[in-house]
Amino acid sequence: MSNAAASPAAPVANRGAITACVILAVIMQALDTTIANVALPYIQGSVSASADQINWVLTSYIVAAAIMTPPSGFLAAKFGRKNVLLTAIAGFVVASVLCGIAQSLPQIVAFRLLQGLFGAALVPLSQGILLDIYTVEERGSAMALFGVSVMVGPVLGPVIGGWLTDNISWRWVFYINVPIGALAFAGIVIFVSETKRDALAKLDWFGFGMMSLFIAALQLFLDRGEQLDWFSSGEIMVEAIICAAAFYLLLVHTLTAEKSFVNPRLFLDRNFAVSMVFIFVVGVTYLASLALMTPYLQTLMGYPVITAGIVMGPRGIGTMLCMFIVGRLIGKVDTRWLLVFGLGLTAWAMYDMTGWTPDVSQWTIVSVGFIQGAGLGFLFVPLTTIAFSTLPAHMRGDGTGLYNLSRNIGSSVGISIVSALIVENTQRNHASIAAYVTPFNRAFDAAAAQSLSPLTAAGRASLNELITLQSTIIAYMDDFKLLMLMSLAVMPLALILRKPKAAPASTDHSAVME
To answer: What is the pLDDT of residues 189-208, one digit of tens each?
Structure first.
């Protein structure tokens, strides 16, 4: 994704200031992937959205970022990297302010889309700048710093978002981008030099258009399917047809065009092709599980928003710590075993969560979250290493864009699917449990004294509330079980991967997190 120049012959002036500015831009973008999670119940109340609709606030941002990440390299070549980066920061900050002042669900979803469109270029272009200003020998340390900055967002996001929501307003989870963006913008204007423009740079607009149409139609299909009762709705039928048609045209164009948006030769590399499946599952398990935890903690368990943010924080800490550990193990331990170990930790964490009830202790939430984060930490670096270890150097730019696209699609699709399953399974479980609640069930004889008698209106209302709670808990268990099974299902694919001969010194471990 980044057109890194060769190692500079002379030291770059103000290198520390440049590093600080681009890291600020990365942190701002990474922060927004999780900072809104803990505020979702408050946003839901403010804009009068249903439980499945409010997740559009998350998925719209991810989808927009997924669509605009691949062409960021073309935009930088055509218009200059500094110009594109400044435009991205300014647009991201303006979109953040618009999110903060939004008064309805359509408004905030539209502004989150805008935020994702502008934010998509921040990470790859910032990464490109760091690769340009550090020598080959220094790039390992630079990319370690870059990787930490990307992971600071998921760690601090729930905590900062919880504090802002609890003490000021949920709108400040978006306004906080204004001072961060202003500092990054000013620093880049002052310290960063512009790159040469390539007037001959071209983009496969047809391929890009079909890919964008396919992703957008797929997301609408998944987000609105449960609400509109799937294929009984004309809208869902239209979205499904558009999605299938766009995918078919993209596939045909990719296989027949002289130079297509998606390079089909990438999939001839076994490691890269298998890693695309792995990173899709990582995207699902990472952000989909975060989307599940927020309503679980605040709605079912009654946690204040700041407490929910604090108990979710250790998940990111586990990821950061294990990324450092894995960085030292690469080259000493078979990368494929590190990958299997990471999937095992993730699956075990999900297995433990299938037994959770609202009475689960805070220590259990923190410890299991830390283990799940540790599993993801063991996945990030080995997966990036093995995905690009056998890929020719001239194909790595295209590979990085497609690789991150797969992760982003996994995240958005995962959130949509688990949200739809929560609604559907809650209704199904409610019907199953309610079938046993009749005046003829002798188990309710003793319950009559506890205002749970099905013979009275008050008793039926109390019973319905209790059944709904139990149905929702079971629905969450089913979702956690699905995520566990997905982690286990991809484990055998590790056997197909080729063992990399050696871990390249300049391997970009942070590519997976763009």
So the answer is: 888 887 787 777 788 889 88
